């Protein structure tokens, strides 16, 4: 594995400062690819649909096992 040259590594300051924190925060948030409103709505609807279907399936299977357990015991 190759080592990075010292010249390639960015200089960092020792210690913490609020201005450096917010500058780094802004730089990272600029890299984020935010979804469009249409994409956000459609993917949220898909998640809600899948959660509803999964919960319904679990409810039905639980009811089946409850009924079967009552028949056996």
From TrEMBL:
Membrane topology per record: Single-pass membrane protein
Keywords (A to Z) from UniProt: Cell inner membrane, Cell membrane, Membrane, Protein transport, Thylakoid, Translocation, Transmembrane, Transmembrane helix, Transport
Transmembrane regions listed in the UniProt entry: 46-69
Primary location recorded for the protein, binned into one broad class: membrane
Locations listed in the record: Cell inner membrane; Cellular thylakoid membrane; Membrane
Manganese keyword on record: no
InterPro entries in the cross-refs: SecE_bac, SecE_sf, Translocase_SecE/Sec61-g
Single annotated GO MF: protein transmembrane transporter activity
Gene Ontology cellular-component annotations: plasma membrane-derived thylakoid membrane
Domain of life: Bacteria
Gene Ontology process terms (BP): intracellular protein transmembrane transport; protein secretion; protein targeting; protein transport by the Sec complex
Stored Pfam families: SecE (PF00584)
Gene3D superfamilies for the chain: Preprotein translocase secy subunit
Subunit architecture: Component of the Sec protein translocase complex. Heterotrimer consisting of SecY, SecE and SecG subunits. The heterotrimers can form oligomers, although 1 heterotrimer is thought to be able to translocate proteins. Interacts with the ribosome. Interacts with SecDF, and other proteins may be involved. Interacts with SecA.
Family: Belongs to the SecE/SEC61-gamma family.
Functional description taken from the UniProt entry: Essential subunit of the Sec protein translocation channel SecYEG. Clamps together the 2 halves of SecY. May contact the channel plug during translocation.
Name used for this protein in its record: Protein translocase subunit SecE
């Amino acid at each position: 594995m190759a080592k990075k040259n010292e010249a390639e590594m960015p200089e960092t300051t020792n210690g913490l400062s609020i201005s450096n924190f917010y500058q780094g925060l802004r730089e990272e948030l600029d890299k984020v690819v935010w979804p469009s409103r249409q994409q956000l709505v459609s993917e949220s609807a898909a998640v809600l649909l899948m959660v509803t279907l999964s919960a319904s399936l679990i409810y039905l299977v639980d009811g089946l096992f409850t009924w079967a357990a009552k028949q056996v015991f």
